[in-house]
Design brief:
Elements lengths: L11 E3 L5 E3 L3 H20 L5 H21 L22 H16 L14 H26 L4 H24 L13
Antiparallel strand pairs: 1-2
Helix pairs in contact: 1-2, 1-4, 3-5, 4-5
Length: 190
């Protein structure tokens, strides 16, 4: 199988279902940003961190492939003529969202209370996590903009929202685990 198809040479790409759209279409921007996020999660997973975090990141990366597939599917072609779904993979579930919430609760229980915003950084691994959080927020913004044009499954949007929260808490937990400095943002008074 060749990697290059030459079908996108004129600036269009095919959605799952065959519909061709411009490569700058918001749907493409949405799932492209999810792909970018997935790559950053791989970078975090490659760091010297707790194996439990790595295992969860692999699960999250799997779910992000599902999010990408959902976003890459033309809603008008999501259901086949026989009434079955074009996507034959498990969709994002309430359990996926609740799993992120449980992980956040567990990590937060081991952390000092947050009293201020914190400046991203303190350790390279923590910085990678903050970058992933920002990319996740961008993916969420793009997906919600797409949702205003063509409806997206609400669980998909909620998953992206919870994932950005999870990445923030993970950054704080990694700061704690790695004994890095957590620098509070305390604005100067005028």
């Amino acid at each position: 199988m060749k990697i290059y198809t030459k079908t996108g040479d004129k600036g269009t790409t095919a959605l799952f279902g065959g519909t061709r759209v411009p490569k700058h279409h918001i749907r493409i921007e949405s799932y492209g940003t999810v792909d970018e996020l997935n790559s950053y999660l791989g970078l975090i997973r490659d760091q010297d961190i707790n194996e439990a975090y790595k295992a969860l990141i692999i699960q999250i990366q799997d779910r992000l492939f599902t999010v990408g597939a959902i976003l890459a599917t033309d809603p008008e072609k999501a259901t086949l003529k026989n009434g079955k779904s074009r996507l034959t993979i498990p969709k994002i579930s309430k359990e996926d969202i609740e799993g992120l919430e449980t992980e956040m609760d567990n990590m937060n229980a081991a952390l000092p209370p947050m009293t201020h915003f914190v400046l991203p950084g303190g350790h390279q691994t923590v910085s990678f996590c903050h970058i992933a959080r920002c990319v996740c927020r961008r993916a969420e913004r793009l997906a919600t903009a797409l949702n205003e044009i063509e409806t997206i499954d609400p669980n998909t949007l909620m998953y992206l929202n919870r994932l950005s929260d999870y990445l923030f808490v993970l950054a704080r937990k990694l700061t704690f685990d790695l004994q890095a400095d957590e620098i509070k943002w305390i604005p100067e008074k005028e």
